[in-house]
Amino acid sequence: MGGIADIPTSAQPIHAAAKQTGRSLLWRLIVPTCLGVAALVCGIAVYAPHEVVDTAITEALVKGEQTARQLQTLRSFYSEHVVMKATQAGVSASPTYKADSKTIPVPTTFILDVAEAFRENGLLVRLVSPYPWPTRQGRVLDSFQIEAWEHLKQNPGGIWSRREQLEGREVLRLAVADSMQASCVGCHNTNASSPKKDWKVGDVRGLIEVVQPIEAILAGSRALSWKLVGGGTLGGLALLGLLLANAMRLIRPLSDITRSIHAMARGTRDQPIPHTGRSDELGTVARALQDLQEQTEERARAEALVTHMARHDALTRLPNRILFRENLEQDLVRVRRGETLAVLCLDLDNFKGVNDTLGHPVGDALLKAVADRLRGCIGETDTVARLGGDEFAIVQVAASQPVAARVLAQHVIETLSAPYEIDGHSVVIGTSAGIAVASHDGADPDEILKNADMALYRAKAAGRGTYRFFQADMDASMQARRLLELDLRTALARNEFQLYYQPLVDLRASELNGFEALLRWMHPTRGTVSPADFIPLAEEIGLITSIGAWVLKQACAQAATWPAHLTVAVNLSPVQFLSRTLVLDVVSALGSSGLPASRLELEITEAVMLQDTETTLATLAQLKGLGVRISMDDFGTGYSSLSYLRKFPFDKIKIDQSFIRDLSTRPESMAIIRAIAGLGAALGIATTAEGVETEDQLRVVRAEGCTQVQGYLLGRPTPASTIPGLLLEFENKRSLAV
Residue 262, exposed/middle/buried by CB under 10 A (0-12, 13-18, 19+)? Predict the structure, then answer.
């Protein structure tokens, strides 16, 4: 029942709650402050006396050690520079020097005489030893001296100290070792009264003890510590008073500000907030609260803008992938009620070429123009979005499918294919489209987008500028491709690749002068995988660089075992030129195999020359500088082969096998072969006819002036292990007309 009575009701005045909050805040300030001050005073009371006394004792210890070390040094100096020289001059040292004016004091007596001067400072100096010296007979070491002797005998460079009561006074006793000096060894070993006859330099013969009274020091330290305690207490109380005074000054402004915050939280504006004229932090808070209400609407507008930007593409102002997916999810609700919709995934054709040749500003302007045209293609209930890069998507609803999707796709392709005028440039691009229809091709956003994307992939593979509907076998095809990719990623590590070699025959000398290395993938379950299936995939996923490096190294190593006149030709992918490591891979392959660079021939296609021509030509020049031969493969099938021959001095051009295959059916093929062979002869470049399979084809290419031939008629691709037998077979047939 008591708990219920404590709950404030809405009828209670608001200032009562504020007053209660103020008392709570004051209480929270007072209690920690009092505890903090009490802890500070107690800390000073406990810590200060011990610390002050310890500091005083430490200073006394340092003073005692300095005195002992000074006496130690003085004794050494006196022995070495006074007693030794006096003895050499015939003057003897005696402990009774005061009774004999012709003697000087021994070092022990000299130190004791000097030590008398320290008595004025309250210091007592003693020379003690466990040995029965003539002047110390009958003396017994006390416990401190025994402990010091045992310690310093093992550690002559150390000290031994102790605080204790001595003759009714509190003193600090400190001892250091009194070691044997070089000037003393001979004297002590020959002196009849010496307690030991085998002294050595450094032996500890006794102790130098300094006794320092510390009663006055301790009394002063205790007085100082109590002053510190008193001062700390007074300072803590003063601090407490200041904190409490300031706390009281803060309570009312905080209560006023709290009431204003509560009013703003309820959505109403309070009376003008007091204390805005203050120059301290509370005034800053009050002024900030006064401005907060006015800023609320502006902040709401800003939040709406941020929300819009988070769901729209900044360049084209179209919905982005996030908003597109949200709208698609809402539209799919209508599909569950029996309606249909279609999703079209669009990808611009040749857009990258625009960016690369005209620059990104033109590319951005083109994307804006594409977005404007797409807005004009769709209906009021449809959605068009930019998913990223040159990818767009459309959701078509409230239409008869799939007919409406087919019409829309054709309309979009035609609309986007019309020329654009961008910053004075006439730009022509195309688009491909993939279509998925819900619910036949998917019932959730992710599935239908995935299927539309697979249909787009099929449309681009079909030649671009067209559209394709999703079909179930597309998914199976993509799954098969993913499985092939997984196997390809491990094929190199599993040693599943193998090189086959096809002979290259010199038509003029009618002899074998090399082989072309051809890559084969021997899969354990798929069998032999065609290069046409896995090479494009390796280029797409970035594995061709490592595979190409392996081919180079393997081909060079195997060619190094052949007769010295045979060469090996290796095909290079355009992707290898982009890796920037091609030259290093070639150098590594040649270096590890020992194959001369002149026996390696690298074959490139015109696709290599289409990308970053200056960089490509520089790379080719580096390879040429190594001594490697460079061939243009599939010559005559590209765009501008003649310009490539002018830009780079190729060693060989290989006539594409399509021209050889069509010799019997297309007369123009013979004219092309004749022109290429004549061009090669004029430029001093060797020409190789690929794909020769019949005697008639061989006869034609020889008559037209080709210098080298390759094809099934001369030899099929064969493993490296069969090459020795193949060489022997060619040697036996050398006399025949090839």
Answer: middle
Q: Is this model's pTM higher than 0.90 or not?
A: no
Cβ–Cβ < 8 Å for 468, 451 = no
Angle among Cα 411, 412, 415 to the nearest 5 degrees reads 85
**DSSP letter string, 434-488:** EEEEETTT-SSHHHHHHHHHHHHHHHHHTTSSSEEE--HHHHHHHHHHHHHHHHH
pLDDT tens-digit series, residues 273-309: 777 777 777 778 777 877 776 676 577 677 777 888 8
Fold of the CATH domain 484-732: TIM Barrel (3.20.20)
In 3D, which of 493, 686, 721 has the Cα closest to residue 603?
Answer: 686
Domain boundaries, given as residue ranges, for the chain: 84-218, 311-470, 484-732
CATH architecture of 84-218: 2-Layer Sandwich (3.30)
Q: Do the beta carbons of residue 184 and residue 87 sit within 8 Å? A: no
Q: Are 582 and 576 in contact (CB under 8 A)?
A: yes
What is the rounded CA–CA span in Å between residue 48 and residue 42? 10
Q: Supply φ then ψ for residue 687, to 5 degrees.
A: -125, 135
CA atoms of 157 and 179, how far apart (whole Å): 10
DSSP 674-693: HHHHHHHHHHT-EEEE----
Question: Could you tell me which CATH number the domain at 311-470 has?
Answer: 3.30.70.270
Other Cβ atoms less than 10 A from the Cβ of 709: the count is 25
| pLDDT tens digits along 162-178 | 888 877 788 888 999 88
User: Which residue type is seen at 207?
Assistant: L
pLDDT of residue 590: 96
Distance CA 506, CA 661 (A): 20
- Name the amino acid, one letter, at 546: S
Contact predicate 222/49, CB 8 Å: yes
Q: What are the residues whose beta carbons fall under 8 Å from the beta carbon of 426, sequence distance 6 or more?
A: 419, 420
What confidence tier does 736 reach under pLDDT thresholds 50, 70, 90? very low
Single-letter code of the amino acid located at 679: L
